[in-house]
Amino acid sequence: MGDTTPFDEMYNPDGSVREPYRALAAWLEEQPDKALTLMQSDAEAIFRKLGITFAVYGSDEGTEKVIPFDVIPRIIAAQEWRKLSKGIEQRVKALNAFLYDIYHRQDILKAGRIPEKLILQNSAFAPEMMGLEPAKGVYAHIIGVDIVRVGADEFYVLEDNLRTPSGVSYMLEDREAMMMLAPDLFQRQKVAPVENYPENLRRTLESVAPAGAGSSPNIVVLTPGIYNSAYFEHSFLADQMGATLCEGPDLFVDGGKVYMRTTTGPERVDVIYRRIDDEYIDPLTFRPDSMLGVPGLFNAYRAGNVTLVNAPGTGIADDKAVYTYVPEIIEFYLGEKALLQNVPTYNCTDEEQRNWVLANIADLVVKEVHGSGGYGMMVGPTSTKAMHAEFRKKIEARPDNYIVQPTLALSTCPTYVNAGIAPRHVDLRPYVLMGDEVRITPGGLTRVALKKGSLVVNSSQGGGTKDTWVLED
């Protein structure tokens, strides 16, 4: 995995500027003192005015915070992006094929390529989906693939997000803010646009509408409501693509079809982009105590009268234990080697690997299989001995509940911090849309760990975001 010095995306080891960053470096040189400080405060004012906030669970200082935004963009060369997008496309096609197989013939399990227990006894597996034919055979229509870079040509997939990947609104707003703050910088380079994402999202959703939906299907975004941490994004995306934002009580099922209550009477709904977890979408099929869902929704879906995006049960393909098998999944369904590698991952259910992990826990990253948002994880080198001991106990008690990875030296990008411009670790979440075709937005959301030396980029853990520029040839 290379040496432990992190790869600097802007500077070569000899201090010269890497090609994609040359125009930016020249621009930064020209900026008068305080210019970046002013840009930074303008950016914060823009985001505050737009209401771009996220909820921090369990935080004492008011729950709504503005996500910190860094005014220095991250830049990806055209040829780097071509390579990345090929690998991403291969991955999402294989994961969709895997989902189709798991909910139909289960050939991969019969072939012994993945342990049956890992799938069939997994809480993310939805037996209710067995034999169901989703529109166009697509289960995961909206996917976020988390990618880290550790060298000039070394990219790894950290995880796949196939349930309800969030953050796309930050990608769009980061770009809009940068265009307002530094229009002169855009004129120096050809930056691939991201602003057609909402239109592409709409096209993708229309392409998977049920057969009788006609030429302009009725699309709604189903949100758990204003107290959800990603509510800003739900309303933003509904607004951007001209769909209606609904909560569970706004919808009802009649005669196996879904309708929306409107002031002029019921209106038939064709596609539901849901931002509610599986177990809450229909109290008649899943959790009976759910107040967020729509009674009878799953049967309407099963009958093919409405499309749910993403399909229930897709979480089985982004389960962190299943992640370790993705290279195998790509080979099984596509007959190809994975173009993008996984981060090497230790399987704690294997006794030999588990013993090695327990002995070396101080150098490793431990993640809960179903954890997200940086919760339920431990970064060995930055944790206390007491935490190492606690996670050793947890792994011994439930080895199947954790995956363990080496601590990667994530690449760094120049970032504007209190002390001036300094390198900070970043990751990347490109967004993929799958319907009648695969649409990948050039770039995605770059998350940056703002604390010096920190490797945790999640906004819930003090991270921020940057605009991501993919250069065009």
Major sheet: arrangement of strands: 3-23-22-19-18
The largest sheet is: 5 strands, mixed
Average pLDDT works out at 92
Helix share, percent: 25-40%
* N/C terminus separation: 30 Å
Beta content: 15-25%
Supply the helix-strand structural class.
alpha+beta
Rg (C-alpha, Å): 23 Å
By oligomeric state, this entry counts as single chain
Number of strands: 23
Segments where pLDDT lies below 50 for 5+ residues? none
Coarse shape: globular
Written account of the structure:
The chain has 473 residues and is an alpha+beta fold. Among the domains are: 19-195 and 430-470, no CATH class; 344-406, Dna Ligase, domain 1 (2-Layer Sandwich), CATH 3.30.1490.270. It has helices spanning 22-30, 35-50, 78-102, 107-110, 116-120, 168-181, 183-186, 197-207, 231-241, 297-302, 320-323, 326-334, 351-359, 385-397, and strands at 53-55, 64-66, 69-76, 142-151, 154-161, 219-222, 244-246, 251-254, 257-260, 267-268, 271-274, 307-309, 341-342, 346-347, 364-368, 377-379, 402-406, 412-417, 420-429, 431-434, 438-440, 445-449, 463-470. The strands form 6 sheets. A 5-stranded mixed beta sheet has the order 3-23-22-19-18. A 5-stranded mixed beta sheet has the order 13-5-4-20-21. Helix 2 packs across helix 6 (168-181) and helix 3 (78-102) crosses helix 12. The two termini are 30 Å apart. 41% of the residues are buried.
